[in-house]
Amino acid sequence: MREVVVDTDCGVDDALALLILLRDPDVHVAAVISSAGNCSAAQAARNAAAVLAAADHSGVPIAAGIEPDGKDYSQSPHGSDGLGNTGLGVSSAELSALPAPALISEMADPTRDLLCLAPLTNVAAALRDDPGVLERYRRVVIMGGMGPRANTDRVLAGYPQFLIKGDTNTNHDPAATAAVAAAAGAVVWVGMNVTAPLHVPFTLFERAEGVLGEFVRSISAGYAEYATRMYESAELIVTAHDSVAAAVLAQPGVVVESEKGTGEVIRADGCSALWATGDGPHEFATAVDYQAVLERIQQTIGAC
C-alpha cells in the first residue's frame, strides 16, 4: 500500500487527480493540504472535501493552507470556485487543528509519499521551519516546471505559449518553487513539458458513468472549453496535468525517461518557470507513458 499526502489547489484537474488516487486500491490518501492557486486555499479545502465525499473517503484529514493577500480568482479557467462554477464544493470543511505547513512536517515519514499539485507555498513554509522535511518522505512528486533547460527548443516547437506565460504553479509563487528546488530529498518534477501533450477527448467524459463520472463531467465542461482554445484543438479536450503527476506517484514506471538536474527559476517579462540546469539530485521527467495515464482516467470515471 502506497501512502500519500496530497497538496492541492483543488481545481478541475486536481479533482480528477485526487479521484485517481482515491480509487486506486493500492494507494491510501493519508491527508490533503489545500493551497491557493486555482482558487483560494479556503475554497480548495472545501473542494477537496467535496471530492473526498464523492469518493466516499470523508474521513481523510484536510488542512487549509496559507492564503496570499490580494489574489483575484474570478478569471480562473477553473471557475471562481475552482470547480467550474458548479457550486459542488461543500459549504464548509472540517479542518485539521494543525496549520498546513505543520501537517506536512507531521506526516513526513519514510513510508509516505508527498504529491504536490499546487503552488509550493505550503511546502516552502514547511521547509523554513523544518529544513529536512522532504528528506523524510520516501518520494516527493511535484507537478511543476518545464523540464531540462536544454530542451527549450522542444517546448518552443510544441507549446510556444508556455515560454510566454511560464509554468502555472511556479508563476503563482516563484520564491516557493525556488526554495523547494534547492531542498534535499527524493524529488521528481513532472513538468508541463510532459503533462501538456496528454489531451483527453471530452467524449471520454461524456461516456463516464456513475456518481464520479457525473461529478467529473459537471466540473469539467467550462475547463474543456478553455483547454480547447488554449491548445487550439480541433476537438473538445480536457488537459490533465495533475492526473499525469498522480499517475507518476501511484505508478513510478509511468516515467519512461528522465534527467537529473538542479531546478532554477527563470523570470522574464513578469512570468516565471522552473527549468532543470546542469547536474543535480532532483529528477525531471522527460517522457511518460500517456496510455497508462489515460487508462487510469478511464477506470476512475467509469468510461472504459
How would the blueprint of this fold be written?
Blueprint: E1 2-8, H1 12-22, E2 27-34, H2 41-54, E3 62-64, H3 100-107, E4 112-116, H4 121-129, E5 139-143, H5 152-158, H6 160-165, H7 168-172, H8 174-181, E6 187-190, H9 192-195, E7 199-201, H10 202-206, H11 210-230, E8 237-239, H12 241-250, E9 255-268, E10 271-288, H13 290-301
Parallel strand pairs: 1-2, 1-4, 2-3, 4-5, 5-6, 6-10
Antiparallel strand pairs: 7-8, 9-10
Helix pairs in contact: 1-2, 1-11, 1-12, 1-13, 3-4, 4-8, 12-13
Q: Quick recap of the structure?
A:
With 304 residues, the protein is of the alpha/beta class.
Overview features:
globular, two-stranded antiparallel ribbon, alpha/beta, eight-stranded mixed beta sheet, 304 residues, Inosine-uridine Nucleoside N-ribohydrolase, Chain A, 13 helices
Structural domain tally: 1
- Counted by DSSP, the helix tally is 13
Helix/strand-derived category reads: alpha/beta
Strand order of the largest sheet: 3-2-1-4-5-6-10-9
- CATH top level is Alpha Beta
The CATH superfamily is identified as: Ribonucleoside hydrolase-like
- Helix-strand string: EHEHEHEHEHHHHEHEHHEHEEH
Question: Remind me, CATH topology?
Answer: Inosine-uridine Nucleoside N-ribohydrolase, Chain A
Helix share bin: 25-40%
Termini separation comes to 24 Å
Number of strand segments = 10
